[in-house]
Write a structure and sequence with these properties.
This protein is an alpha+beta fold and 274 residues long. The protein has two domains: 64 residues, Alpha-Beta Plaits; 168 residues, 3-Layer(aba) Sandwich (NADH Oxidase). 34% of the residues lie in helices and 12% in strands. It has nine helices and eight strands. The protein has a four-stranded antiparallel sheet with strand order 5-6-8-7, sandwiched between helices. A two-stranded antiparallel ribbon has the order 1-4. The protein has a two-stranded antiparallel sheet with strand order 2-3. A hairpin with a 7-residue loop joins β2 and β3. α4 crosses α7 and α5 packs across α6. The radius of gyration is 24 Å and the shape is elongated. It starts with 6 loop residues before the first strand and ends in a 22-residue tail after the last strand. 24% of the residues are buried. The structure holds flavin mononucleotide (FMN). Flavin mononucleotide (FMN) binds next to β7 and α8.
């Protein structure tokens, strides 16, 4: 049975029941005039969302030994406005030209700290964020992947896509794989986890917006997935386990500025059930 270390300060608790009513799995109960408590036998149904802890107006409740005083106070006045969010989404771009310089470590660390708050399907912290935080390491990774691809092609790999990318990179010196980006953010998850692919993509979608809000360029790297599936050794070079699901986004200081947002041709279908 899970030890939730659930405690309520009986002096400051107003008995408002907000925590009881917000628990998604009805792990809490409250008798008339008493403080909330855990329903005996339902401890294992708690999946650690901390909604009880977060909703308590007086900070009277502790779970998992957490001190409410250590939490950020939620203040919607500090949120981006709907207009600001829309502007960011419309004006983020897939950047394919980068400065050859590192993003300061504290900027990357700040993004990684915010990424801890990305939701996952079962509220588990099982995602792995693999970061290339130095352009020289990125140079090494790029070279290793292209060399592995050359070896595979020499050994008979039949992939026009891989052959084409290698040709562009070696003959023309055009990095179509990572577009010269100094950094990579690769998110992975054990494939057996429920919603692994969704959790990975969601984390990268949040990453993209967090990076854009800091003036960084990003681009999703579908090509790396194609290489990983076709070329032996790429999965290992990325530090991935045999069955981990992954996706990646390369990023860095953009060497290109867009003056305006594009205008999407056509619109995605919007359906309404009645
Ligand atoms: C899942 C995914 C994979 C992508 N893979 C690549 C890629 O490997 N190389 C690339 O240059 N762009 C890639 N892109 C970028 C798309 O081409 C780009 O988002 C699209 O053309 C729209 O441009 P925008 O992002 O600037 O609005 C990818 C985008 C997504 C969402």
């Amino acid at each position: 049975m899970k030890d939730l270390r659930f405690k309520v300060d009986g002096e400051s608790c107003s008995r408002c029941r907000l925590c009881v009513d917000d628990c998604p799995n009805r792990v809490l109960t409250q008798r008339d005039g008493a403080c909330p408590e855990v329903v005996a036998g339902r401890e294992d149904l708690c999946f650690g969302c901390q909604h009880c802890f977060a909703i308590c107006p007086s900070g009277s409740l502790s779970i998992f030994g957490l001190d409410p005083a250590g939490s950020e106070i939620r203040d919607p006045a500090g949120f981006p406005s709907p207009e600001a969010m829309g502007r960011l989404i419309r004006n983020r771009r897939s950047v394919r030209k980068y400065e050859r310089e590192n993003v300061p470590a504290e900027v990357i660390d700040g993004i990684l700290a915010d990424l801890q708050y990305v939701p996952t399907a079962q509220n588990k912290r099982y995602l792995k964020f693999t970061v290339v935080d130095d352009y020289r390491v990125m140079d090494g990774l790029r070279e290793r992947i292209v060399s592995l691809a050359e070896k595979a092609l020499a050994g008979g790999l039949d992939s026009r896509f891989v052959a084409g990318v290698v040709k562009y990179m070696r003959r023309d010196g055009v990095d179509v794989l990572f577009r010269g980006a100094p950094h990579l953010m690769l998110v992975s998850a054990h494939e057996g986890q429920v919603s692994a692919a969704q959790d990975v993509s969601l984390a990268l979608a949040y990453f993209e917006l967090l990076a854009a809000s800091r003036g960084l360029g990003t681009c999703w790297c579908g090509f790396l997935g194609v290489f990983e599936r076709a070329v032996p050794g790429v999965r290992e070079a990325l530090g991935l386990g045999a069955t981990d699901a992954f996706y990646s986004v390369y990023f860095g200081p953009p060497a290109v500025r867009y003056a305006r947002a594009p205008q999407r041709l056509g619109t995605s279908a919007i359906a309404r059930l009645a």
